[in-house]
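ABC transporter substrate-binding protein
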Amino acid sequence: MKKLTTLFAATALATLMAGAAWSKTFVYCSEGSPEGFDPGLFTAGTTFDAAAHTAYNRLLEFKKGTTETEPGLAESWTISDDGLEYTFKLRPGVKFQTTEYFTPSRDFNADDVIFSLERQWKSDHPWHGYVTGGSWEYFSGMGLPEVLESIEKVDDMTVKIKLKRREAPFLANLAMPFASIMSKEYADKLQAEGKMNQLNQMPLGTGPFAFVAYQQDAVIRYKAHPDYWGGKQKIDDLVFSITTDAAVRFQKLKAGECHLMPYPNAADVEAMKADPNLKVMEQAGLNVAYLAYNTTQPPFDKVEVRKALNKAINKQAVVDAVFQGQATPATNPIPPTMWSYNDAIEDDTYEPEVAKKMLEDAGVKDLSMKLWAMPVARPYMLNARRAAELMQADFAKIGVNVEIVSYEWAEYLEKSKAKDRDGAVILGWTGDNGDPDNFLDTLLGCDAVGGNNRAQWCNKEFDDLVTKAKETSDVAERTKLYEQAQVVFKREAPWATIDHSLSIVPMRKNVEGFVQSPLGDFAFDGVDIVE
């Protein structure tokens, strides 16, 4: 797809806004472009907002504004006494979207569930490697290939999933974007026509909005799904106006060119609150930002070096400069609002002279390193370039020379997974299901090395603790295990934990029905514009 020029993109958006006179059009000033439109292939929130929360549904969904699960495409389920068998009764009468490129001939059924999960699980599945270089990062990183025993079709409206071991977060995991349900019928058609890549370019699901078109790096268009099982949406058309600069997003919001925006500059928040045409939602974010060392590469393979660098970072200065009071320095790899947070752990103190001596004692002199800075704003890191510059100055004080590097967002995410990646990478995470496992195992478990585990850190003591925690449903026991895992993490220092931020969402005053998600999602089902 050819990129639009800035002028053409602006003209297209103006045309869409003018159309609101005859159809209700909601414009979201998105912060970036999606990596693709198949939620199973990716982990970025930008991509999930553009696909998983528009075109698709899952067996379970998260209740609006919470991390509690509720029925989605499965209207009910039962769990065997041993916790190893989950039987899902599927919702009858659910319609797939009809688009210009596909007209379904049947309703949603068990075949779609089995296709959607087995393509990520079984290496011999015809759809397992349909995108060149693509991987089922979430599915694999959470250890599901080792957990699943079988997925069986009991009848058209019943699916039974058997596990090899107990998995306490399993139901919550099925409510996450990677478990979105695709149309097997659509996939079969694409396969027969030799157009399998189209599944990642032209999505089709059961969700509230049907995909219309994507003009790369400019505009994504959707229309309300008229036969949506949850009821047709109040807005007729949904537009993602891709606007990477937060200041430009704010100007568009003030001018009425978009109705809602994510990730404002910290310096603009007070002006937003003072604008009579706007309203601002905010809540503590279920997130963490971090600097991940590649623990397999010298000298970052030495814990003494990692701990020395951590003591050289003035985290409070980074937080003050980037967030201006809208974040706090992070101690642990999970946010303090999450159950099992270990508040007995003490954070690294900022002591550059001590850090310099620690490097000398570790035999490290004249260290040069690369520091990767994200090119986009995320809730946990509004300005990675500024944070990197501050860390660069901090490291210079202890004799470490830093080169700041960056890439386009999709490339950044892909390159930072490499096991031989150099230096340290700024990244972060907003929880996907409210469970500590979604941070500790997903980001730091051995199964996630080469994927979400950007530190490439595999520690048996830590991994055994988080694995054991998943295998019990006793919350008190899980809490103890996760608290111990956080002690190991802090001792071994695969990351420098940076911050936990507030989640701030500004919008036009006439927007109703938007519910802020603790998971950082931007979903527009139930949203209306009231004149």
